[in-house]
Amino acid sequence: MIEKTQNLPIRILLIEDNPGDSRLIQEMLNDADNFNFKLSIAENLVTGFLSFEESEIDIVLLDLSLPDSYGFQTIIRTREKTINIPIIVLTSLKDETFARKAVQAGAQDYIIKDQIESNSLVRSIYYAIERNKMMLTIESLMGTLQKNDSQLKKIIEKNADL
Predict the structure, then answer these.
(1) Which of 28, 56, 96, 119 is the most buried (most CB within 10 A)?
(2) What is the CATH number of domain 10-134?
């Protein structure tokens, strides 16, 4: 993922089938202090998937109740298409157990629609992007460590044979 500066907009894909909710999210993002963003909106999951192929996305705001997907399947299908892109779930469900399961399924955050405030939404977006960057860095470092460990074992085995 490209390192963002304050001059470059955060590219957000909102996958939301309710035009009223889409408008509300857009207004909240517009009202946030010093938040530079570019918002794309998809009304269903398939259209959202096409957006991943057509343009670079920094974060996905994902409704769980779409015409072509519902619930955990929405998160799982989106995670399969957006391996390195953070997802924030937006939903009307006020269920903490479901929220934890959504995060376990691959979402970075879980926000209840009628509890969203402008600056907290933006904060959640920034935090999700940063957490995702940290996770990608950790995964990369783990891969490097495993490779180095494998190489070290080979060297030790060769020296033992001598």
Answers:
(1) 28
(2) 3.40.50.2300
